[in-house]
Structure formats: structure tokens, C-alpha cells
């Protein structure tokens, strides 16, 4: 095994990969979007623009 790759794998094990860190950072945004989903069908187009713009 290449030494550089081995070191990269060790670092990724401790702090996660770039993709894992990005997903962890976006989880609160996704949760906020999903929490508003049940009321979406009842909102008019104008309400959506003012609420989510």
C-alpha cells in the first residue's frame, strides 16, 4: 500500500471524508426544508415567494 494513501485513510477515519463532512454540514438545512414540506400544498404561490425568498 502506498504510504500517502495509507495516511489519507487514517486522516479520513478520524475526521471523515470531504463528502461526509459536507453531508454533516448540510443536515440542519435539509431538516429545515423537510419540516416545511407538510404545509407546502396549502400555500399559495405568493406565500411561497415571501416565505422562502
Automatic annotation (TrEMBL):
InterPro entries named in the record: P-loop_NTPase
Native species: Candidatus Acidiferrum panamense
Protein name per Swiss-Prot or TrEMBL: Uncharacterized protein
Top-rank taxon: Bacteria
Amino acid at each position: 500500500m502506498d504510504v500517502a494513501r495509507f495516511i489519507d485513510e487514517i486522516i479520513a477515519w478520524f475526521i471523515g471524508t470531504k463528502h461526509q463532512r459536507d453531508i454533516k454540514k448540510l443536515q440542519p438545512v435539509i431538516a429545515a426544508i423537510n419540516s416545511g414540506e407538510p404545509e407546502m400544498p396549502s400555500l399559495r404561490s405568493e406565500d411561497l415567494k415571501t416565505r422562502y425568498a
